[in-house]
Every structure is written in structure tokens, then in C-alpha cells.
């Protein structure tokens, strides 16, 4: 994480979160992890095998941390803002799925790459 700024609400945090995910490869790895997390939750609900839910953090964090440590080369925001980072992961994933991430990236100063 760059700087020592403390975020006091999600609206302030969101542009920072996107800036910490500036590379398309970082976001792609997050999308993979988040998609697997959702699929695990759906599988658990359908099968009633609730122990599957224990795999959700592993699936989500594995891809995210690989992205941060090898692609983005920064410290995951989840270390400082765990709940907002989780919410932002799902917001970024949903906006990407619905084709609405580009404007958010532009507002955060990241150009037009919506992947």
C-alpha cells in the first residue's frame, strides 16, 4: 500500500482499491478467484456440503495474493482494510461482469482498460 492515508469510508477507499489493481493481469487473477469463490458457495448450497465453504478464503486469497505479489508488486489492501477489500473485490467483479468497470477505472485515473 502506498502512503499512510487512512480511509474513513468505502467511497474514499474504492478509487484507492482500483489503483492498487491497476494492471489488467491483477484484475484477471482477482476475477478468477472471486468466480471460484462464488462457484464454491453455489456448490455448497446446492449439495448441502457446507464444509466446502471453508475453501472459499483459500480460493479467493490465493489468486489475489499471487496477483499482488507477482504482478502488481504491492501489498494487498486486505491486510489493512479486510472488509472493504472484500466488498471492493465483489464490486469490481460485478462491474467487470456487467461491462461497467471502465468508467470506474477512468474515474480512478487508470485509463480505459476495463479488463
Q: Structural class of the secondary structure composition?
A: mainly alpha
Strand share of the residues? under 5%
Find the count of extended strands (DSSP E, 2+ residues).
Answer: 0
Order of helices and strands: HHHHH
How would you portray this structure in words?
It is a single chain. With 115 residues, the chain is mainly α. It has one domain (17-107). It contains five helices and no strands.
Produce a short descriptive summary.
The chain has 115 residues and is an all-alpha fold. Helices cover 64% and strands 0% of the residues.
Observed structural traits:
single chain, mainly alpha, 5 helices, 115 residues
Secondary-structure map:
Blueprint: H1 10-19, H2 24-47, H3 56-72, H4 82-97, H5 101-107
Helix pairs in contact: 1-4, 2-3, 2-4
